[in-house]
Every structure is written in C-alpha cells, then in structure tokens.
Amino acid sequence: MDFGLSKKHEMARTLFKEFAENEVKPLAQDVDETEQFPKETVAKMAKLGFLGIPIPKEYGGQGCDPLTYVMCVEELSKVCGTTGVIVSAHTSLCCDPIQTYGTPAQKEKYLVPLAKGEKLGAFGLTEPGAGTDAQGQQTKAVLDGDEWVLNGSKCFITNGKEADIYIVIAVTGKVEKRGRMMKEISAFIVEKGTPGFSFGTKEKKMGIRGSSTYELIFTDCRIPKENLLGAKGKGFNIAMHTLDGGRIGIASQALGLAEGALETTVEYVKERKQFGRSIAQFQNTQFQLADMATKVEAAKLLVYKAAMAKATQKVYSVEAAMAKLYAAEVAMEVTTKAVQLHGGYGYIREYDVERMMRDAKITEIYEGTSEVQRMVISANLLK
Amino acid sequence: MKVVVCVKQVPDTKGGVKFNPDGTLDRGAMLTIMNPDDKAGLEAALRLKDEYGAEVTVVTMGLPKAEDVLREALAMGADKGILVTDRVLGGADTWATSTTLAGAIRNLEYDLIITGRQAIDGDTAQVGPQISEHLNIPVISYAQNIKIDGDSVVVERQYEDRYHVVKAKMPCLITALAELNEPRYMTPGGIFDALDAEITTWGRANLVDVDDANLGLKGSPTKIAKASDKVRKGAGEKVAPDSPEEAVSYIIDKLTTKHVI
C-alpha cells in the first residue's frame, strides 16, 4: 500500500497551488464581500483546462483522473470556497453524467464545449419540496411530438445563472414498483436561452457568496426529444450516481477549506503575541493544532481514497459518502477552531478564517446532508 | 521554424542554499525551480509556436534531476526535451557550460536559440552570449520584445533608460529578460503527457566539436576561492538602563566578562 503521490499528481498539485495563490487568493475576499461570481477566474481556468480535468481528451478534456480533479478543487478551496464549488458543480454534476449516460451526439454537442470550458454546467435536482427526498419531485416533463415540455422549478442551483448547460431531473410519469405507484423520473439536458426557461431570484447566502445560486423556472419550456439523458425512467439512478461523484467534489472542497484554515492559523499563532510570547508557545494552541492537523490528514486520506475508488470501481457510493461526511464535519470543526485561535480577529471579515468558517457550513448540507451520508453508509452496513 | 531554448534548474531561493566542500553549489540537496529569465525565454518560444507553428526544443545541462525542468517545459507546451548530463561535465563554470551546450546544440537544427539573460544562482549573464560565439551566430541580449520579420528577428534590447530595436538574420541567439512576458501555466493534461514523454539524454559522447580540456570543473577557468551562506545574526539582547552611567557600566561589565577589555 503506497500513500505517496505519483510525480504526475505532485506536479499537478504544484500547478493548482500556484494558480490558486496567484489568481484566486487575491480576489477571494472581494468575491465574498461583493457576492460577485468570479467570471475572469473561471475564464482563466477554462483556458488552462481546469473545467475538464477528468474528461477524456477525445471529448475536449485533459485526460487526467478523478484524483487530479480532486486536488484541483482542494487547492482552489484552500484559498476560495466559491471557486472550488464552481469547478466541482460543473465537472461532477454536469460533465460527468453526460460522459456516463450521454449518447455520442450529446457528448459531441454538450460535453466537448463543457470540457473545454467554453460552456459552464449546472445540475437541477433540488426543489422547494424535494431536497433530501428526491422522490418528492414536482417538475414535470411531457412528451409532445418531438419535444419534451418542462414545467416546474428547481431551487438552490449552483452556477445557476452563469451556466450554459443544465442537467434537469423531472417526473415523466408513474410506474408501479413493488405494488406501489411511484413517480417515474428522467434526466434532461437543457440549454440556457431555451424559451420558457428563466431564473428566479438570486439566493443571499451565509457562505460561498460568490457562487451563483438561483432558482430555475420552467414554464412550457420545450426541449428537443433527443435531450433526454439516459433512458426514460432512469433519472433517479442517474441523479444518485451523479451525486456520488459530486460528493467527492464537495468532500475535496471541504478538505481544502479545512487545510486553508489550518495553514492560515499556523502562520497566525506564530505571529500573535499575548503575555509576552507567541500564542504558538501555549500548550492549548499546540494541542488544538495537533488535533486539527490529524483530522485534516484523515479527511484527506478518505477523500483521496474515494477519488481512487471512482477511478477503479463501478460503485463508490459508500466511499464518497464517508469522504463527504467526514471532510465536511472536519471542515466545520477546523474552521471553527481556526476562528477561536484567531480570537477577536477571527470574527472580523478582514481575516480569511472568518470567511472559511462561513464557507465550510454548506459542505455539511449540499449534495446530500451529513444525515443523508449517514443513511447511505448505514444502509450499506445493514443490507 | 525551429527554436531551441536553453533552461537551467536553479535553487529556489525560498529553500536556502547548500554548498559542496569545494565551494560549488550542492544542487542535489536544494529545492529547485526553472530559472525565471529562462522561463520567459521559453514563453517567448511558445508564443512563436502559437503564432508561427515553431517547433520548440528545450535543452538543459545538469544533474539527472534537472529532467524536472524539461518536463515542466513540456507541460507548458514545448515539443521536445534534451538533458545533457555526465559526471565529467560537473562543476562547470560559464565557459565549460557554454562549450557543453554549444556541443549539444550542434546536433540540432535551429533558426533561433533563446536563453535567459542570466541565472539567479550565478548571475553572470555570460552563457548565452558565449554559446553564440561558439556557434558563430549573432546574439541580441536583454530582449524585452521579440518579433519575426521574414528570415530575421526584430528585438527590443533593453537599456537602463531606453531600448534599441535590433534586427538580426536568423539563425541567431537571443537572451531573454524575465520582464519579456508573463510565462503561461502548465495544463493538467500537459503535465500527464509530459511525465509520459521520452526525454532525450545526452552525455559527453554526444557533444560535437568540443575539447575535453574545456569541460567540467577541470575545463573551468573560474576557481571559487571561498563561498559561504549569509551568517544569520541572533536577536541580540535589549536592555533599558535608567541612566547613561548605568548603561556604560552595563556595557563595560559585558565586555569584561567576554574578555574584550
């Protein structure tokens, strides 16, 4: 068993770190303060191939593996949680399902520009009445001639108004399952600009404030018949499988936030003086840092293991759930401790840890709450 | 169009400097980066590739681990990497280095050779112009802008308060300033390809038209008398005596204890 990174991954990390330090970190505070989507950064990342890291070269991607993608989200999130989730939602929630379930024509039309970064992707599953309970979907799609007609709305959609291509989950009928009538759910590819597709208000959030979070509204929105993704009725499976990958992305974001907060705090406690010495010299500080670092390392191992599982296994739900559950809780704990070790300054917006703590909270909620991750893990134990 | 870029792996100044007993740098023990002026030279070459479809070959001389800068260059977009490494080439000064690199470049076809102005470890700015002398081609140093005009290059050569526009027929050699451009990042896919790519490795036997007397430490006219790292001073001791008399007596006491007086 080898825990060392390959030279490819080490070099990729150097790249992501350099990019994050030079291009992302200087803007992070402003992106948060002004709630502005970092368009210029996204354009730079597109140019460098960061929006198609695990996608094969034949589809315009970089031909790397899930671990490289994970390290990209991790390094971006170390300095800016907003930038991390933009890449994660685009790659895991939009590129990945098209790569896995798309027809050759859909891949050519949608995956290639997504992987090249010419287009940005998003994913619409959550509805006002259907978050964790994906069966509670209300958005409907009805086939009318050569077109599907979508009606309904999706909420809390990451990359909401900035994306060009959306994966949308909708109810296409009813099916009998084990003697019960269940909703038949299907997945669709919807382009921005399609008549009948509009946006609701922008959400004002606690953290990841530069991320564009919107409601998607479909009113008699007609999309071509061929934009059905995967088979009719397979939408629930597609959504769940997509979220397995998405959770690895969010776990990486959480890991990055925790690492960023730890690194910032290590520097701070060496500088900050109280009672005539640096607070790094107090045993409480040392023990807190030791616990934080140990948990960050454990989270990293789980996240990297999940990335390796995605590369080699067909099913990796449990690995993804464990990685997200643990990394998200570590992110919350470590960023909270980071604020505490910063004392009053940690509560001031000028200091990065204040933002990191706000950014960390969402990792315990989106793409499956921590409670959902526990359901996934225990269901596998008790099956 | 064919462009050869010479790059050097240099110590990362963030990492501290270590020396061999003979006063030369212990390159194996230090963190390293691609020399910044060389990186600008590489970027200039890659822009010629973008614009004119130039083929970019990157050459370095150094320890086997200098291969890392070649892979970095490939990940940025260079086409080919050549590592010149051999025990007999070790400890080279600028004369022996330029002799070696010229001996390697004689194997290659080129319209343009680009080197950095100088390396941050030696700061001599001699290797580039010396290579041009060995190869008997024109040199334009301190380039802050490079343009191609038919079979010539037009270069803005930087001075302290102005620049000259110099035109030279190719083949020629240009030494690049870090200010020439903002080098591009690698790409993730470029990194994966670069690590799979074959790096050509040449030794003494592959050098063309060179004399052993001009190679390595033995062939280096420069001899280092002594080299040392900056000695860090301690934080010192701060005292705040109440009166000048008290201060004088404190200092005299210290000097007496240390047998200075």
Description:
- The complex is a heterodimer of chains A (383) and B (261).
- In chain A, 52% of the residues lie in helices and 18% in strands.
- Chain A is of the alpha+beta class and 383 residues long.
- In chain A, the strands form 3 sheets. Chain A has a 4-stranded mixed β-sheet with strand order 1-4-5-8. A 4-stranded antiparallel β-sheet of chain A has the order 2-3-7-6, with no helix packed on it. In chain A, strands 9-10 form a two-stranded antiparallel ribbon.
- The mean pLDDT of chain A is 96.
- With 261 residues, chain B is of the alpha/beta class.
- Chain B has a single domain (2-214), classed as 3-Layer(aba) Sandwich (Rossmann fold).
- Chain B is built from 6 helices and 11 strands.
- In chain B, the strands form 2 sheets. A 9-stranded mixed β-sheet of chain B has the order 9-8-7-10-6-1-4-5-11, with helices on both faces.
- In chain B, helix 2 crosses helix 5 and helix 3 packs across helix 4 (127-135).
- The N and C termini of chain B lie far apart (73 Å).
Structural class of chain B: alpha/beta
Q: Tell me which protein chains meet in the greatest interface and how many residues each side has.
A: A-B, 19 and 13 residues
Query: What Rg of chain B is obtained from the alpha carbons, in whole angstroms?
Result: 23 Å
The count of β-strands of chain A is 10
Protein traits:
heterodimer, A: 383 residues, alpha+beta, four-stranded mixed sheet, four-stranded antiparallel sheet, 10 strands, B: 261 residues, alpha/beta, Rossmann fold, nine-stranded mixed sheet, two-stranded antiparallel sheet, 6 helices, elongated
Task: Provide a concise account of the structure shown.
The complex is a heterodimer of chains A (383) and B (261). By secondary structure, chain A is of the alpha+beta class. In chain A, 52% of the residues lie in helices and 18% in strands.
